Structure formats: C-alpha cells, structure tokens
C-alpha cells in the first residue's frame, strides 16, 4: 500500500475549514492507503501555549480524529511528541534548508506579524519540521487544504536536494487537495480564510458548535446585494456558501446552483446551515461518547506511538547513515 501522512495543530478549536479541507478527506482516503495521522504538538509550541490547555487540546484533537471516522486499529493516530524521530530528522533537514527559502514562506510572514513579540527560531523553521513529519514515513500523499501547498512544495524541494546528494533516500510526496472545501472562507469576510484564531466568533463555524449556533452563524453570513445565486469569484460570500454545501454533500457547484434555482439568499443560508449540522452531528455525538472511554483511548495512544516509531526509525537510521553518523553497536 502507498503511504499517507497528515497532521493538525492542537491550537484552538477545529473549524469547519479543518474538517472540509482535511479531516473529511482523511477519512475518505483511509481505506486506500497506509495512513499516519499525527497531532502535531511540536508545531504548536512555536506560539506560546498554556501547558494544561495544550495537553487537553491535543487529547481532544486525537479523539476527534477517531470521532470523525478514522479507525485507530487501521490508521496510525498518534502524538508527534511521542515519536522522537520527528525532531531528530527535523534537525538534520535544517542543515539542508536555506534561510532564503524559509523567509519566503507566507505563513511565517503572517505569523511573525501576528506574534511580533515572539518571533522565535521554531516559527522560522516550522516548515522543516513539517517536511520531517512527511519524509519520515516515506509518504506518497499528503491530504491538506490549499493553505499548506507552499509547505508541501518546500518539503519536495528539501527531499529532492537531499536525494540529489545522497541518492534515493526519500519518497517525493504529492499534495492531495479535495474538489470542494479546500479553502473555506470566513463567514464574515469571505475573502479571508476561515481560521481557528479569528477573533470574530461569527466568522468561523467550530466543529463543536451546537445546532442553534451553526444555524445562526450561517444566517449572519456576509453575502452581497446581487440577489443571484451563482458560483463565481465576484460573489465570494455566495461562492463560499456553495463551496461549503458541496463539501458536505459531494455535489458539484453546478448541481448546487441548480438546487437553489429561483431561491433567495435566506433559503441558501438556511439550507447550508442544515447541511453542515447534519454533517457534524454524528461526529459530535461520537466525540462525546469517546470522551468517556478513557482506557480505550489511552491504549490507542500507546500502541500507535509504538507503531509510528517502528516506521520512523527505519528512515531515520537510513538518513543518519547517509550523512555519516557512526553506526550503533
Ligand atoms: P493546521 O492545523 O493549520 O490545519 C489543519 C488542516 O486543515 C486545513 N485547513 C483548511 N482547509 C480548508 N479551509 C480552511 N479554512 C482551512 N484551514 C485549515 C489545513 O490546510 C490543514 O490541512 N502545518 C500544518 C500541520 C502539519 C502538517 C504536517 C500537515 C504539520 N505537519 C505534515 C500535513 C503534513 C498546519 O498548521 O495545519
């Protein structure tokens, strides 16, 4: 089987963007690939975290992966910090990555504006750790949202550079981007990405929002004054609603536009809200059930970390040997 790797940060509460852009596709692809899904807690500390909060969020995120439909017996679901190979490979790859290429990363530029009081080296080398995550497992495919494409490209560049020096060490990974939901936009400013860290709570739908909140947020979604339901860039609010609808139903934008022929924006907002509710409800219910199954989750955390480590060590040892570190007795 081909290998799939992906991960999410345990910062903030997951949004509908994380779900439609990534998590939902992970579930769809999980039968076809040998899958590794990590809670990337090492990445999270590039911005300051409250330790007990981070621990709680990481646990919730791991539980949510399972609640969304990933079978933890078949998919390797684990904490990045439990597999030391991530950090070890990241160090090595740091030495094969240029300052210049890292300083071109848009996420770094955005984050260093936002966290101007804490522009640490980890924030700068964040993409190298992400490259290490992916390359550690000889990954073929990485399902992500559009915002991660640049990081995937630098991962490929680093891998190719390394292979160019030492021979075929790393598989060159490909991004997998879903047909819809790959860039869910803010409900309040539809030219901006929906983000966990948005200060306006009405801008993002959170995975754990209750029914009324979801319906209300869609009702308040910013649209336009054209009164025309069409899927086009000139109407970003409406386009986003259609895209969300398609992400939940797997319909094409053309089919969606047909569904709303002769209808108004109010109908569209209500229908999209309902569709999202019915998509998220089973995930929320399963999440709540799983939260009371402590020993089951604990067992998964332990066994999957061992499994991930088993795979990670293979690549790590190969890389260590290639760069010239002494053999182990
Ligand atoms: P993160 O935690 O910001 O986001 C997790 C996933 O959700 C996607 N996503 C979106 N998709 C559509 N619309 C949106 N508005 C939206 N917002 C977020 C992201 O594209 C991502 O797929 N650096 C990564 C985590 C990471 C990783 C990796 C991913 C670390 N190592 C290795 C893949 C492979 C990040 O911060 O994602």
Automatic annotation (TrEMBL):
Family matches, as InterPro entries: aa-tRNA-synth_Ic, Rossmann-like_a/b/a_fold, Trp-tRNA-ligase, Trp-tRNA-ligase_bac-type, Trp-tRNA_synthetase
Binding annotation for ATP: 9-11, 17-18, 145-147, 184, 193-197
Motif ('KMSKS' region): 193-197
GO term, biological process aspect, one: tryptophanyl-tRNA aminoacylation
Residues noted as binding L-tryptophan in the record, renumbered to the chain: 133
Stored Pfam families: tRNA-synt_1b (PF00579)
Subcellular location: Cytoplasm
E.C. numbers: 6.1.1.2
UniProt catalytic activity: tRNA(Trp) + L-tryptophan + ATP = L-tryptophyl-tRNA(Trp) + AMP + diphosphate + H(+)
An annotated GO cellular component: cytosol
Keywords: Aminoacyl-tRNA synthetase, ATP-binding, Cytoplasm, Ligase, Nucleotide-binding, Protein biosynthesis
Gene Ontology molecular function: ATP binding; tryptophan-tRNA ligase activity
CDD domains xref list: TrpRS_core (cd00806)
Enzyme class: ligase
Motif ('HIGH' region): 10-18
HAMAP family hit by this protein: Trp_tRNA_synth_B
Subunit architecture: Homodimer.
Family stated for the protein in its record: Belongs to the class-I aminoacyl-tRNA synthetase family.
Described purpose of this protein according to its UniProt entry: Catalyzes the attachment of tryptophan to tRNA(Trp).
Protein name: Tryptophan--tRNA ligase
Organism from which the protein derives: Anaerosacchariphilus polymeriproducens
Lineage: Bacteria, Bacillati, Bacillota, Clostridia, Lachnospirales
């Amino acid at each position: 089987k081909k290998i799939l790797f992906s991960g999410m940060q345990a910062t903030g509460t997951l949004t509908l963007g994380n779900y439609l852009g990534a998590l939902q596709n992970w579930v769809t692809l999980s039968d076809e690939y040998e899958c590794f899904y990590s809670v990337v807690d090492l990445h999270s500390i590039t911005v300051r975290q409250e330790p007990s909060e981070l621990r709680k969020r990481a646990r919730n995120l791991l539980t949510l992966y399972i609640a969304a439909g990933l079978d933890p017996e078949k998919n390797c679901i684990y904490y990045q910090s439990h597999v030391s190979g991530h950090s070890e490979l990241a160090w090595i790859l740091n030495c094969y990555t240029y300052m210049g290429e890292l300083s071109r990363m848009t996420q770094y530029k955005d984050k260093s504006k936002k966290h101007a009081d804490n522009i640490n080296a980890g924030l700068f080398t964040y993409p190298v750790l992400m490259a290490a995550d992916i390359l550690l497992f000889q990954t073929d495919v990485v399902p992500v949202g559009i915002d991660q494409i640049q990081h995937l490209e630098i991962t490929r560049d680093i891998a190719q550079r390394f292979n160019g020096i030492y021979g075929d060490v790393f598989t060159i990974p490909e991004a997998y981007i879903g047909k819809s939901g790959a860039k869910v936009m803010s409900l309040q400013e539809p030219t901006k990405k929906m983000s966990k860290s948005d200060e306006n709570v009405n801008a993002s739908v959170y995975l754990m929002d209750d029914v009324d909140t979801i319906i209300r947020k869609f009702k308040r979604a910013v649209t336009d004054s054209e009164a025309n339901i069409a899927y086009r860039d000139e109407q970003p609010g409406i386009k986003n609603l259609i895209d969300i609808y398609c992400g939940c139903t797997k319909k094409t934008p053309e089919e969606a536009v047909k569904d709303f022929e002769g209808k108004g924006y109010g109908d569209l907002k209500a229908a999209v809200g309902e569709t999202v509710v019915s998509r998220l409800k089973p995930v929320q219910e399963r999440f709540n059930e799983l939260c009371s199954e402590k020993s089951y989750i604990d067992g998964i955390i332990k066994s999957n970390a061992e499994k991930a480590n088993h795979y990670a060590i293979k690549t790590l040892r190969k890389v260590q040997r290639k760069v010239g570190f002494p053999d182990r007795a």
